[in-house]
Amino acid sequence: MPELIVDLSEAKEFLKEKGCRTVIVQIPEGLKDRTTRISDELSGSCENVFIKMDPCYGACDLPLHDKNVLNADAIVHIGHSAMHRHKDIFYVPCQYRISGEEMEENIARLLRELQKRKITAVSLVANAQYGTYLPQIKKSLFENGVQSFIGHGTSRLAGEGQIIGCNYTVVESVLPNVQASVYFGDGYFHPLGLVFSTDKPVLVLNPLHKTVEEISEKTKDRFMRKRYLAIAKASEAKNFGIIVSIKSGQRQKEKALELKKAIERHGKKAYLLEMDLVAEGYMTGTGFDCLVNTACNRIVLDDAENWKTLIINPTECLIVLGEKKFEEWKPDEFLH
Fold it and tell me: Which fold has domain 3-94?
């Protein structure tokens, strides 16, 4: 079974070189079981280690306000690639350690599926935890007659072949050369976004579940039917609440202001709602007919069904207003 590695050696050097007395450490939910271990390891390099226990939603969600309040010298952010090139923030990306035998099994599994589908050219993508294995997969596929391409994205957040939840541009340059994309990793959020961004089959090679499966057009169609239904319901709304996140990497004030003007142009009411944690429970009793989310696109793509109030994304709002067509639907990527 792959093991998730958290290497703090460079973070400790960073803290020592800066002469830090106080540091805030941000840990993703899946690593909270290592809280004491991480704190103990960093304590040798820094006098006061504060572990931030609030949920962390990615590199776009840094505790900059906390840093000021606690007068901390630095932030150590664990689990994601760098977003802010800030002298006081150190990023510790986590990576899975997969044995040579396990990788051979994964690649053999993928090859069987590609051969069955007569696919001879693919793009290879992964998230930050698995990206280092893409060159090995590429080499093995080539030796077995399958061309593969690892693209470069326009986002400064992503490395070669790396996709993040709000940017899939790594596949754009190689897309004309391939029949499908292969996502090496776990979970469905990233590959589902890839389906909408490429309009080509997406195969998920999951090293944790030891499976290969396609995110099919049926999955996409089911999702799109739900979004079209949301757009139809939103067309009846008379007032809209426009959610603006204050998280450092999700802040889209200008987009929110443009949406407010657009809504008002069509004789409807629009209200600006500023939030840090965008959660359904905070909307209780507000009475909005529809919410427009300008924060993380995952809130609508992954979680809309759990909201009591109808929630849509910015492009969907413009479709509601008649300023865009249904054919122009997109998941509203953030292009950092």
Answer: Rossmann fold (3.40.50)
User: Which regions in the chain score pLDDT beneath 70?
Assistant: 84, 153-159, 331-336
CATH number of 100-215: 3.40.50.11850
Dihedral sign for Cα 189, 193, 198, 201, please: positive
120-157: b or e for each residue (b if 16 or more CB lie within 10 Å)? eebbbbbbbbbbbbbebbbebbeeeebebbbbebebeb
Q: What is the pTM of this model?
A: 0.80
